[in-house]
Amino acid sequence: MRILLIEDDPDLAHWLSKALHKNAGFNVEWVNDGLLAYKQLHLEEFDAIVLDLGIPSLDGYSLLNKLRTEDNHTPILVLTARDSLATRVNTLDSGADDFLPKPFMMEELIARLSALIRRSRGKDKPSMSCGSLRYDTSSKCFFLASIPLSLTPRESEVLRILLQKSGEPINKQFILDRLTNIDEHFNLDAIEVIIHRLRKKLHQSDIQITTLRGIGYCLEPVTPPLSNQQP
Predict the structure, then answer these.
(1) With 0-12 CB in 10 A as exposed, 13-18 as middle and 19+ as buried, what is 123?
(2) pLDDT at position 28, please?
(3) Could you tell me the pTM of the whole model?
């Protein structure tokens, strides 16, 4: 899982990056400037953002407002030393998903981040679906037209990522970034093989994995052919 850390204190940022990776397997990218973070979020996609309010160029409140106004729904957890009721209310009203005052315990930060990512991925919902494909988040099983779909753990993880983004194109690197903390032996070639296997298992169903050349893969319902019959 990829985290964007927006923090202008280099010592704190270095410690956070190492601790989040070591204790939770998060891949952390750090920027120390609000404007740079805003530009990076237009180029890349992250599973969550950890944001300090007192950052230069574009302060935390302004960055929050810009992202939410532009319909960027990446989960955002705010870290700040301004621990007051007014700050909490303003932060949440500006679009933050959670708030953690400094100083804090690393265990709590990881727990809060993990909860935000689960909610954003739909894991707090009983199921996700696309066409006749359904994923039960409790049993972690896939069903195709109510029939259990036999998948390997790797196939299941890749299909879950595709289902979470159904209707949207995602590239192989996006998938890889979300799997390396689960299986360090994953690589881009392995993802191609898994996509091939998933296509065979979804063959003749009402959904498909489409390849968009130069963009990535997209899980979507099968478009029925146009009828050639004259009205």
Answers:
(1) middle
(2) 93
(3) 0.62
